[in-house]
Amino acid sequence: MAAQTTEAVPPERAAAREWFRDAKLGMFIHWGVYSQLGAGEWVMNDKNLTVGTYEWLASEFNPVKFDAKEWVATAKAAGARYITITSRHHDGFSMFATSATKYNIVDWTPFKRDPLKELAAECQRQGIKLFFYYSQLDWHHPDYFPRGRTGRSSARPDSGNWNRYQDFMRQQLTELLTNYGPLGGIWFDGMWDKPSADWQLDKTYGLIHRLQPAALIVPNHHLAPMPGEDVQTFEQDLPGANTAGFNTKEIGALPLETSLTMNTSWGFNITDTKFKSVPEIVGYLVRAAGNGGNLLLNIGPRPDGTIQPEAAERLRELGRWLAVYGPSLYGTRAGPVPPHEWGATTRRGDTIFVHVLNWPDAVLALPALHGRVIRASTFPRGARVEFSQSDAGTTITIPASLAGEPDRVVMLLTTSAGR
Ligand code: FHN
Predict the structure, then answer these.
(1) Which own/partner pairs from 121-124 qualify as long-range (CB within 8 Å, at least 24 positions apart)?
(2) Which residues of 382-398 are buried (b: 16+ CB within 10 A; e: fewer)?
(3) Which is the closest atom of ligand 1 to the Cα of 89?
(4) Fewer CB within 10 Å of terminal CB in the chain, N or C?
């Protein structure tokens, strides 16, 4: 399928895309059977666990402390506007009630509850959108055949029916899109495991759009956007960057997103203590927004269903920061000055927010802006900021009173922010 970003979309989806652009922060959750081993969500592949061994592990999964209300409250307190959770990761285990396979949390585990159902109800109650992560790659299903690049030590028979696997996925997607109320969308991952396979995207995307016309399709295939898709997501990288080594640098016209680990792992990793600081997280959020994108910030809850205190504390602190600075981000679009090492700009109407993240000097020079700057002030306190504008650019003097802030925000009221 050729890259394409200019197709006409129905009004429900167009509105949902605008909602997404406004949202700015989502909370990503990687949680599943793998959480029990505390070694990340790739543990089945990394430790060459066979299907049989992993099936036993799955039969032990009993996250008795899972509390949907608390998870949703945590996301809300962080300032997140949506949650994206793994409904099925590469291990192939379904974290929801499904009649497509017995290999699911309700039928296979002593837990017997459907956490996604509980989460969906709680998201409705607390007013936050829910997206389901869905892995197209599967290390367990016999019909994921021919095999891809990963999951090759799972000891499955060397046979399988690819079309049947595609139908299986569509059956599960139908369940996810009919049994859990209105969804924000589906976040796909895993196509990169078999780049040249026929993923039947037209059929699958068509089904999703038919079942829920406002649901967005967010594919983490690391390629330029394809027809039917709604968001271009970048993994561990700001939009258009490729420090992680697998993202495309090609940016289309769709809403953008950056998914980011809070430490260095997606699924619970008991030895990973490299948690990002709150100022670092703020920096990612601001730079994502300055690129016109959202930040999808990940947590990997523990196998008992609790959220690690290190993550919960950072989320709370981020929420406290957003409660003050949120208006310079939520509902904005990428500003007129593309992100620099010093920071980024966002824009709402003719107001420009200059986010100074990393600049040692008192004076910052911006390139030429479209309109005339009428007033410059600190945000949100509104103290006057010295500025001067010429054809060459605008310089602002960053007030010393902002020293120590993770993001020093200066608001420029202009005659035209140059849309
Ligand atoms: O392999 C997955 C990984 O486990 C994780 O889910 C991330 C999230 O963006 N995506 C995949 C790698 O592209």
Answers:
(1) 121/68, 121/181, 122/68, 122/69, 122/71, 122/72, 123/72, 123/83, 124/181
(2) eeebebebeeeebebeb
(3) 6
(4) C
Is pLDDT above 50 for 309?
yes
Query: Cβ(220) to ligand 1 under 6 A?
Result: yes
Q: Are 205 and 228 in contact (CB under 8 A)?
A: yes
Structure tokens at 190: 């895993």
How far apart, in whole angstroms, are the C-alpha atoms of residue 24 and residue 321? 14
Question: How much is the average pLDDT of 199-204?
Answer: 98
Return the pLDDT at 3: 47
Total-model pTM:
0.97
Q: Please tell me the distance between residue 388's alpha carbon and the centre of ligand 1 in angstroms.
A: 46
Q: What is the pLDDT of residues 269-308, one digit of tens each?
A: 999 999 999 999 999 999 999 999 999 999 999 999 999 9
91 Cβ below 6 A of ligand 1 = no
Q: From the CA of 188, how far away is ligand 1's center (Å)? A: 10
